[in-house]
Amino acid sequence: MPTATCTAKAATSTKLPSSRPVARPRQYWLFKSEPDVFSIDDLATAPDQTTRWDGIRNYQARNLLRDQVKPGDGVFFYHSSCKTPGIAGTAEVCSQAYPDPLQFDPESPYFDGKSDPDSPRWFSVDLRLQTRFTDLIPVKTLKSEQALTDMVLFRQGRLSIQPVTEEQWQCIIDVLARR
Fold first, then answer.
1. What is the pTM of this model?
2. Per residue in 98-136, pLDDT tens?
3. What CA–CA distance (Å, rounded) separates 128 from 146?
4. Cys-Cys with 124: which of 20, 33, 54, 55 at CB 3.0–4.6 Å?
5. In Å, how far from its chain's centre is CA 40?
């Protein structure tokens, strides 16, 4: 995955304009990656520990990424399709969704000849590493937690971007603290 940078704008005033919309609560996600393609270690060694999350080619995952994932959201970085799948760390979304440039690159395995630059099909966001766990939390451990039985991970396992409730997020953080 190519890298991108995230910048934060400094507040210039403590006074909020009256027309400002109410901030939405932070949402949480689980993003899957095969560690032999892109691992949490790759994110840790990326410039500024930040990268573009690209190559999503599932419409349901694309819709979540495009329409619901927002800057400031928390992400569990999940290693999938490997000997021991599980959560390897956390990241934060640090950009709005934008067209995935790989869809337009004929040399990319993610090229989509039917995608139009004026109406792109596929989107990316930028992620910044927050925490790389010393030991990943294996899926077996996650499945043993009663509070996690309704996770999308266990109902729609193949979905590469999935919502995580605030309660599920906290449960997983608590699992980590007990280790």
1. 0.86
2. 999 999 999 999 999 999 999 999 999 999 999 999 999
3. 30
4. 54
5. 12
